[in-house]
């Protein structure tokens, strides 16, 4: 009674043949010249692999390999990355590295085993009175003493505490 009512070249419900329905998970299906296609992806999703069968398969707000846009992989130095609302973030730092500046763009930028400003953890600065600090295996130490001073007691917290220009320590520790 209604004749040839469907244009099989444009109908997403009958694309190329009666009953051949086009589907696009996380998107809107279309029929173009009798072939199924994706006319649009839902907000936050994309068709990164070009495979109609899985539609708009990528959640751009959460995919660490397609964060914000297709092909934008989150690669952060010394870190396990994650994608949060389409922006790369540090999920966790690897080994003894830490994200002390809070900037995801440079990942976990500090090696807390050797950084004198972040020795053993962010914000743990090594301070050596009358000397230069050293950080080894995440522990502060005395790197060098200023001229005329020595670390005679071996305690890092008071640094190079002995003035070698005194009568009790004349040129060396304990030399009167």
C-alpha geometry: rod-shaped
Low-confidence stretches: none
Distance between the termini: 120 Å
State the helical fraction: under 10%
Q: What's the number of extended β-strand segments?
A: 12
Describe the sheet with the most strands. 2 strands, antiparallel
Number of helices in the DSSP assignment: 0
Radius of gyration: 32 Å
Mean pLDDT: 93
Oligomeric state as shown? single chain
Question: What is the string of SSEs from the N terminus onward?
Answer: EEEEEEEEEEEE
Query: Could you say which structural class the secondary elements and strand pairing correspond to?
Result: mainly beta
Strand content: 25-35%
User: Which strand order spans the largest sheet, edge to edge or round the barrel?
Assistant: 1-2
Describe the overall structure.
It is a single chain. By secondary structure, the protein is mostly beta strands. The protein has no helices and 12 strands. It has a two-stranded antiparallel ribbon with strand order 1-2. A two-stranded antiparallel ribbon has the order 3-4. The protein has a two-stranded antiparallel sheet with strand order 5-6. The radius of gyration is 32 Å and the shape is rod-shaped. It starts with 26 loop residues before the first strand and ends in a 13-residue tail after the last strand. The mean pLDDT is 93.
Question: Brief overview, please?
Answer:
The protein has 176 residues and is mainly β. The protein contains no helices and twelve strands.
List keywords for this structure.
two-stranded antiparallel sheet; mainly beta; 176 residues
């Amino acid at each position: 009674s209604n004749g040839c009512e469907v244009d099989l070249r444009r109908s997403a419900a009958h694309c190329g043949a009666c009953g051949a329905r086009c589907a696009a998970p996380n998107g809107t299906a279309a029929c173009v010249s009798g072939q199924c296609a994706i006319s649009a992806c839902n907000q936050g999703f994309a068709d990164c692999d070009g495979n109609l069968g899985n539609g708009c398969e990528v959640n751009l707000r959460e995919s660490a390999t397609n964060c914000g846009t297709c092909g934008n992989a989150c690669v952060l130095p010394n870190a396990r990355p994650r994608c949060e609302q389409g922006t790369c973030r540090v999920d966790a730092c690897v080994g003894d590295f830490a994200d002390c500046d809070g900037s995801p763009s440079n990942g976990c930028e500090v090696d807390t085993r050797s950084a004198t400003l972040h020795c053993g953890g962010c914000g743990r600065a090594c301070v050596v009175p009358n000397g230069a600090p050293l950080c080894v295996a995440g522990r502060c130490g005395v790197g060098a003493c200023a001229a005329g001073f020595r670390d005679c007691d071996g305690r890092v917290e008071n640094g190079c505490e002995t003035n070698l220009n005194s009568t009790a320590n004349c040129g060396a520790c304990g030399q009167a």
